[in-house]
Amino acid sequence: MSPRLRHLTTLENLPRDTIERLLDRAEALRDACAHGTRKLSVLAGRTVLNLFFEPSTRTRTSFELAARRLGADVVNFDIGFSSTSKGEELFDTLHTLEAMHLDAIIVRHKQSGTPDELVGHAMSGVSVINAGDGNRAHPTQGLLDVLTIRQHRPDFENLIVVICGDIKHSRVARSDIHALTALGTKEIRVCGPSTLMPSAEEFPKVHYVENFDEAIRGADAVITLRLQKERMAAIDLPDEAAYFSHYGLDQRRLALAAKGCLVMHPGPINRGIEIASDVADGAQSRILEQVGNGVFVRMAVLNELLAR
Ligand code: ASP
Fold first, then answer.
1. What CATH number should be reported for the domain holding residue 21?
2. 167 lines ligand 1 (CB under 6 A)
């Protein structure tokens, strides 16, 4: 069995059994807290800090609920759009907050690599959880996405999963690819305009398909992504109407996928840009299940890192 994690900054190179342990734990905690209606005391007396340098709705709320459902105290420290990005100011902030005796820091930052820098500077005993850094990783999103898929289709070795949209700027896509690869997914296809694709060397085993009609054919799950304009150079910016006609998930395209194909999106959704409203709200949509699973996955991660 792989060792217990101290920090979670990426899913890259995490062994399959660690990922499966976290997914199993998420389901066990979901049942133990009766879907959130019963509070547990596993982390009573522990303090968790949400340190968000970028805005967030789902992730921050979900971490807060997860920590509270496990009985921990939660402090929110929102820096929003502050110009603080790196260097001494960040570490000063860290040490100031640590002096208040924390057990875990959940960090979101626009700069890729910040959570690992915090691991390097954090006092021993403080766990760091990455809630999204630049375009690099969003490990709890990757875990909740594979948990959502597994609840419908546990046979990863038979699955074709398509990730469509702005892959280049997406930390979600990267963490999804790491998790899907670790679980032995038969085929991962990424699709989008060539300007929004990562380099082919980054994921040698992933299939790059520029045409969405081709990419979605026979797919068992399709994950659509937002255009992450905040991380784009002006030159990358596609025209939204043209983008929808080439890369929008609508009913016609969904009909090309395998029967019962799971429709997923990490949010926030831009209806009519990357996904049609009737697909986002349709019978195959798993988008709200993803949100619900987010809380249980984050409980599992906090439990792994902090439970005594
Ligand atoms: N919420 C996800 C993230 O933080 C996806 C997105 O923002 O488009 O990366």
1. 3.40.50.1370
2. no
